């Protein structure tokens, strides 16, 4: 029996999943530090007596596009962007470390440095706490200095240093909260002195809106093609039933 119906159904299912991924990327075109989601697929030959041209479609492990986004100057003291390779370390909701490129930081009510998503930023020595009303400067190596309003520059004190890491991107897995974590069985990376940041700047999303729009159109056409194949398979089955009924 020809499995055309099931082959087309698998293709339509994967086209819908790809469309959802591209739509999510489009929704995050303006999200700072966002890494585009990538879903890849491969053909799996149908095992049996079917024609050798038949092949199912299956999804492989989804990943992310780790290319760099554009840097935008903001002039804000607490904005930082990682130049080149590297990640900022934040405290994950369930404990442990998570990694992000979102550098528009803020100071919480308790003086702790957090992301705009209220995730505590991790320093080399633990939490980073800035005294209230301080003027903050962040050096290229991630060192945070603070001085009180009206204090001379000689009174600057070091608050701490951002923990900057550069793990192998093949070991990173994106979580549902948008943060990246090390895959199971891989130890958290140590701080890397070669990672540098630029103060007063934020990194934008690496999603190309034109490419994403073209991909959405292509996925839509692919889904339509698979649905037409399903209709053709149904028509062929009805014709075969008529032949058998009157044969």
TrEMBL record:
Residues 199-243 form the Flagellar basal-body/hook protein C-terminal domain. Residues 81-146 form the Flagellar hook protein FlgE/F/G-like D1 domain. Its main location: other. InterPro entries: Flag_bb_rod_N, Flagellar_basal_body_rod_CS, Flagellar_FlgE/F/G, Flg_bb/hook_C_dom, FlgE/F/G-like, LlgE_F_G-like_D1. Keywords: Bacterial flagellum, Cell projection, Cilium, Flagellum. Residues 5-35 form the Flagellar basal body rod protein N-terminal domain. It holds the Pfam family Flg_bbr_C. It is found in: Bacterial flagellum basal body. PANTHER family: FLAGELLAR BASAL-BODY ROD PROTEIN FLGF, FLAGELLAR PROTEIN. Belongs to the flagella basal body rod proteins family. The basal body constitutes a major portion of the flagellar organelle and consists of five rings (E,L,P,S, and M) mounted on a central rod. The rod consists of about 26 subunits of FlgG in the distal portion, and FlgB, FlgC and FlgF are thought to build up the proximal portion of the rod with about 6 subunits each. This is Flagellar basal-body rod protein FlgF. It comes from Variovorax ginsengisoli.
